[in-house]
Amino acid sequence: MKKSKILVSLILCIVMMFSLCSCAKKTPVAEISMADGTVIYAELYPEIAPITVENFINLANDGFYDGITVHRVVPGFVIQAGDPEGTGMGGSGKNIKGEFSANGVENNLSHKRGVLSMARRGDDFDSATSQFFIVLEDSDFLDGNYAAFGMVTEGMNTVDKIATVTTDNNDKPLEDVVIKNIRITYKD
């Protein structure tokens, strides 16, 4: 009887260990659906930029990005979105701490092709709200000054296509490039 109790206890411990392992943190993925039917998938890295990722997820879940345009396209550099006004001057109204070394935060995600990072106003390190950009070509000079927080894992062909649109003198596309919505999913 005593041996069977020990065996049952051991089995329960093993089952509990496996159930705890299945609760491991999952990686958030931004599914950026464009109005033209294409989709960009980007892994988000809360272990690198927790405040930034939480802000981005909350905005996406609240529908903030639904219908917003890509308001800035600089070929060979970035495409940028997240401004409800479409001018590059707007945002969500809630500033977040800039998670990069110049602002006292370690962030080792380099601004390589496909990286998502937060835009901000000039020298105000804590001015990021909702605007983000996707890097088109390696731009290491941004490292330490902007909060990189994710990486495109699928759909760079869509990003590259957006990078070819005709723009005005302020890098604004002449025809709207619309984000239908951004949804957050989780993967193991």
Description:
By secondary structure, the chain is an alpha+beta fold. It has one domain (25-187): Cyclophilin, CATH 2.40.100. It is 21% helix and 25% strand. The protein is built from three helices and eight strands. The protein has helices at residues 2-21, 50-61, 156-162, and strands at residues 27-34, 39-44, 70-74, 78-81, 115-118, 132-135, 148-154, 179-187. An eight-stranded antiparallel sheet has the order 3-4-6-5-7-2-1-8. Strand 1 (27-34) and strand 2 form a beta hairpin. The longest helix has 20 residues, at 2-21. The protein is globular.
What is the CATH topology assignment?
Cyclophilin
- Radius of gyration over C-alpha positions, nearest whole angstrom: 20 Å
Largest sheet: 8 strands, antiparallel
Q: What would you call the quaternary organization?
A: single chain
Output mean pLDDT: 91
* Strand neighbour order, sheet with most strands: 3-4-6-5-7-2-1-8
Strand-residue proportion: 25-35%
- Which stretches are low in confidence, meaning pLDDT under 50 for 5 or more residues running? 10-22
